[in-house]
Amino acid sequence: MIDEAKRALQFSARPIKEIAYDLSFSTPEQFSHFFKKNTQIAPVDYRNMFVNIGR
After folding, report:
1. Which of 5, 7, 11, 24 has the CA that lies 20 to 30 A from 45?
2. Quick one: average pLDDT of 43-51?
3. Helices marked H in the chain
4. CB neighbours of 44 closer than 8 A, spacing ≥ 6?
5. How far is the C-alpha of 30 from the C-alpha of 49, rounded, in Å?
6. CA pair distance 21, 4, nearest whole angstrom
7. Do residues 30 and 20 make contact, with C-beta atoms less than 8 angstroms apart?
8. Tell me: the pLDDT tens digits for 6-40?
9. What's 13's domain CATH number?
C-alpha cells in the first residue's frame, strides 16, 4: 500500500485527500499518519520532493 501511495503522490496531481479515499482510508488524517509512520515523511513533503526536482 505504501508503494501505491508513493506512486500516486509522485505521478498524479490528484489531491492527497482523494488519494487517501482511493486507498480506503476513512480520513485524510488517517492516511497521513499511516504514510508518515511508514516513511518518516509527510505525504505533502514526499510529493514536494518531486515537484521541486528540476527547478
Report:
1. 24
2. 91
3. 2-11, 16-22, 28-39, 43-51
4. 16
5. 21
6. 13
7. yes
8. 999 999 999 999 999 999 999 999 999 999 999 99
9. 1.10.10.60
User: What is the amino acid identity at position 7?
Assistant: R
Q: Which domain holds residue 15?
A: 2-51
* Cell numbers found for residue 8: 500516486
Q: Is the dihedral of CA 1, 53, 18, 32 positive or negative?
A: positive
> pTM above 0.85?
yes
Rg of the chain taking only CA atoms, in angstroms: 11
Cβ neighbours, 10 Å, residue 9: 22
